[in-house]
Structure formats: structure tokens, C-alpha cells
Design goal:
HIT family, subunit A, binds guanosine-5'-monophosphate
Length: 152
């Protein structure tokens, strides 16, 4: 079944579109956390970042920059958050790749992403090692020609 965003792409449900090209579409979020809160999606349906073909990811990212510049020119926010959720635990509710562009104004308290905490330096070193090894392992699997879906 097509995602709600695929239905926006096909025109089956309406959206306030602000930009589109061959690979991407930008429209206003239906429940904005700030004025101008915009979503940029891939026109093709991919569940999340992990599933995105690199060329499509690049195209969507170019659109994110284009739209962010447009929002800055139109609304003069003090800042902009770019947020991209992957997985329900991270707050993803629509499983079709999308990027939130959230204009921010001083003191608006629209988004609070994390609370910094003190970290154990040895734990940080071990984490850096563990993640670096995982990335290297994935690269070598890719280099051996495994199917993209299994290795991306
Ligand atoms: P997520 O939590 O998956 O990162 O974000 C999904 C976003 O899609 C939410 O901010 C939600 O308001 C928005 N959204 C969900 N359904 C629709 C819709 O039908 N139209 C529009 N314009 N936005 C939607």
C-alpha cells in the first residue's frame, strides 16, 4: 500500500507544495511545530535513510538546501533545524524518507532534541572503535559486490 506521502506525490491527497523536481518534493507539514515547517521527500518511496539509493539521497539533500534558502529568504528565521527521523524509537511516524526543515526564532522552544550529559572517555573511545570497525566491515562487504539491499 502506498504511503501517505506517495499519495501526495500521485495527487491522491492534497498538500501545500512549495517545490518539486524529478526526484523530490517539498510541502508544508500538516502539523507544523513552527511557522514554515516543511517536509522534503523522495518521490520514490523508500522507508528510511538506510534504504535510500545514494543518487536519490543526493537529490533530496540538494532540495533541502534549496528550500532552506527559500525559507530563510521568505521568513527570516533566526535559525533552521534539519531533522530526519529513522525508526519509531526515533520518532518516525511516516515510513517514507523525509527531511524536516524547521525554521526557528529565538526563544520559540519549538524543538528540544537532546540533553547533553557527561560521558566516560573510555566508553567514548570504545564506541568510536566499534562503530569505525562496523563501517569498514560494511565497506568491504559492498566492495565484494553483495546486493545493495543486504549491505547498504
Ligand atoms: P516523522 O515523525 O515521520 O518524522 O514525521 C512525519 C510528519 O509528517 C509529521 O510532522 C506529520 O505532521 C506529517 N504528516 C503526516 N501526514 C501528513 C499529511 O497528510 N500531509 C502533510 N502535509 N504532512 C503530514
Amino acid at each position: 500500500m502506498p504511503s501517505i506521502f506517495s499519495k501526495i506525490v500521485s495527487g491522491d491527497i492534497p498538500a501545500l507544495k512549495i517545490y518539486e523536481d524529478q526526484a523530490s518534493l517539498a510541502f508544508l507539514d500538516i502539523s507544523p511545530v513552527s511557522r514554515g515547517h516543511t517536509l522534503v521527500i523522495s518521490k520514490d518511496e523508500h522507508a528510511d535513510l538506510y534504504a535510500m539509493p545514494p543518487e536519490t539521497l543526493a537529490a533530496v539533500t540538494r532540495t533541502v538546501q534549496r528550500v532552506a534558502r527559500g525559507l530563510r529568504a521568505a521568513l527570516q528565521p533566526d535559525g533552521i533545524n534539519i531533522i530526519q527521523n529513522n525508526g519509531a524509537a526515533a520518532g518516525q511516524t511516516v515510513f517514507h524518507y523525509h527531511v524536516h526543515i524547521i525554521p526557528r526564532w529565538e526563544g520559540d522552544n519549538a524543538v528540544r532534541l537532546w540533553q547533553p550529559r557527561d560521558a566516560d572517555q573510555a566508553e567514548l573511545r570504545a564506541l568510536a572503535e566499534q562503530i569505525g570497525v562496523a563501517i569498514t566491515d560494511l565497506q568491504s562487504v559492498n566492495a565484494q559486490g553483495a546486493p545493495r539491499s543486504a549491505s547498504a
